[in-house]
Specification:
Number of helices: 3
Strand order of the largest sheet: 4-5-6-7-13-12-11-10
Structural class: alpha+beta
Radius of gyration: 19 Å
Strand content: 25-35%
Shape: globular
Helix content: 10-25%
Number of strands: 13
Distance between the termini: 63 Å
Largest sheet: 8 strands, antiparallel
Length: 167
């Protein structure tokens, strides 16, 4: 009797672990930009499997994008979330979609900040003009960090491997 009870408890524990692992993956409620390192827990150079481990399997695939791009959103067909681009099976770009609520960067930098606040908190940035928005960028050895401005306010973050931040 004890042996079958122990086996049943072990089996229930295993089932709980299997169910908990996918539930833990997903977009963070308040994602963070770590300049030059990661965005929303995704790092440049990661494999698709590593991205699925962090963000889960709930994503859409962009049909008209020049490189394979996955869109992770909080709900199907909602705009707020995170895009992840791949080249040769590795992450080469990751950027926020439509100003997801609660996302932030170091030094208390949050969406809605003015360009002056971005420069004040981040330091020297280079301006790149895209079609309908501006990207303030800082390049490091391994990454380009972008702070997107739309209508004069901080609207998004991006992290790229030697690529234009314009999308």
């Amino acid at each position: 009797m004890r042996r079958s009870l122990a086996t049943a408890v072990a089996a229930l524990g295993l089932v709980a672990l299997i169910w908990a692992a996918p539930a833990a993956a997903g977009l963070p409620k308040a994602g963070a930009l770590l300049p030059g390192r990661s965005l929303g827990g995704v790092r440049l150079g990661e494999t698709p499997q590593a991205v699925r481990t962090v963000l889960g399997h709930f994503y859409g695939v962009c049909r008209g994008c020049p490189r394979p791009t996955w869109y992770f959103t909080y709900r199907a067909f909602k705009k707020q979330g995170l895009a992840v681009e791949f080249q040769r099976g590795r992450v080469t770009g990751v950027y926020t979609l439509w100003r997801p609520v609660g996302w932030h960067a170091p030094h208390g930098l949050r969406f809605g900040a003015t360009p002056l606040t971005v420069h004040d908190r981040v330091g020297t940035l280079r301006t790149i003009t895209c079609r309908s928005y501006v990207a303030l960028v800082r390049d490091s050895v391994h990454a380009r960090t972008a702070y997107y401005l739309f209508e004069g306010r901080l609207w998004g973050f991006g992290l790229f491997r030697d690529a234009t931040p314009c999308r």
